[in-house]
Amino acid sequence: MTAPIPADAARIEIRVNELKQLFNAMDAAPFRDRDLDPNAEAFILEWSRDVDRRRPLALVVHLGGEEPREEDRAVLEQAVHEFFSHRAVSERHRLKRLFRLGRTCLAIGVAFLGTAILLGDLVMEMVGHGELGELLRESMLVGGAIALWRPLEIFLYDWWPVRDEALLLERLSAMSVQLVAARPHVAAQEAR
Question: N- or C-end of the chain: fewer Cβ atoms within 10 A?
Answer without folding.
Answer: C
